[in-house]
Every structure is written in structure tokens, then in C-alpha cells.
């Protein structure tokens, strides 16, 4: 019986990884550069656009396109596995975005997906409804930092827009804020603090509504 118990414990510890591979938790390491690090064997790919593909059809003037950077980012998703996606943002904040994703990865904060919004035919509402994390989406520059890639939305379905005084429904529709769910932000959350320490304004501080998924920088 002792022999079979030893065999059982061996299989339990190594599973399908085999004796020559490291246990899965070995991939949870600090990441110095999302651009240069190779994809881990068990990483799921959510987006793999070229820069030209990620910006195609945006309608933005060339001056804005030239100010953007396409960044590979790694995160834990809602399925408990490691995923790799992409964030198209302004070059001025791409270093911050890389550092913030590194922090979220290392602390186990869940990002469901990060896919350039070209995947949703530049439709912000479809992206939000799919709980997609994204930065650049060209629109009226006078009211949106997303138009220049100077803002990022984090898990919109977990962190919906909630109106303070009117009876208007949350956005995305039927989305709720449940702070017991990993990936949900709230005042004092370490991820919120990390963003604000880097100079980002959190949408929770807006006057008319709580835009909890939104962070922007001047």
C-alpha cells in the first residue's frame, strides 16, 4: 500500500507535465518585459495583431497613429490560466501600462481579456459588453482620452459605469460591481493605488457617475 501511495502522490504533484517539466506554478514569475519575453508553453493567446492590423480602419489621423504603441501583455484570466493579449495605447503611457500589467500579474489580479478594439470593428459598446480591457479607440478628442490612447478601461463588466443621481442603468447593460469578484476595483484597491501613483485619474472620481473601469492620464 505504501508503494501505491507514493506513486499516487507523485502523479498528483506532476500531473501531465511529466518528470522533465517544471510544475505549472513555476511560470508565475516577475516579468521584466512583455515585449521581449517568449510565450510560455501553456499561455493562451487572446490577440496577436501586427501594428498595422491593430490600427486599420480606426479613422484616426496619421499624427495620432504615429503616437501609438502596440504592447504585448500577460495576465491571469477568469479561467484561472495565463493569457497573453495586446494593448494599443499612446507611447507616453505604454511604459506605465507594461508596469501595471506586470503588477496585476504578480498580484494575481484577473484581466478577462485584452484585445485591440479593431477586433470589435471599433465599437466601444461591443468591447465593453465583452469585458474587454483596451486603451485606444478613436472618437471625439474633446471628450475622450481613448481617442489618443491616453486612457485604459479595465474589465468593464466587473467595473461598470454607475450613475450617481439618475435612474439610468449601469453600462455595460446588466453589469454589476461585486467587490468579492477578482478583477473588480474599489477605493483603496492596490491596483487603483498603483494607477494613481503613476499619475492616472480614476473614473470613480468623476462628478456625475462612477466610471470604475476607466483610468486616464493628461
Short account of what is shown:
The protein has helices spanning 2-14, 51-55, 62-65, 91-106, 124-129, 190-197, and strands spanning 44-45, 68-76, 82-90, 113-114, 132-133, 151-153, 161-163, 201-202, 209-211, 214-216. It is an alpha/beta fold and 218 residues long.
Number of helices: 6
Q: Could you give a short account of the major beta sheet?
A: 3 strands, mixed
Binned strand content = 15-25%
What spatial form do the alpha-carbon principal axes imply? globular
Mean pLDDT: 84
Low-confidence stretches: 1-37
State the end-to-end distance: 67 Å
Number of domains: 1
Helix fraction bin: 10-25%
Structural class: alpha/beta
Strand sequence of the main sheet, in spatial order?
A: 1-3-2
Quick one: how many beta strands?
10
Rg is: 19 Å
Order of helices and strands: HEHHEEHEHEEEHEEE
Structure description:
With 218 residues, the protein is of the alpha/beta class. The chain has helices spanning 2-14, 51-55, 62-65, 91-106, 124-129, 190-197; strands spanning 44-45, 68-76, 82-90, 113-114, 132-133, 151-153, 161-163, 201-202, 209-211, 214-216. The protein has one domain. The strands form four sheets. Strands 1-3-2 form a three-stranded mixed β-sheet. A three-stranded antiparallel β-sheet has the order 6-10-8, with helices on one face. A two-stranded parallel sheet has the order 4-5. The protein is globular, with a radius of gyration of 19 Å. The N and C termini lie far apart (67 Å). Residues 1-37 have low confidence and may be disordered.
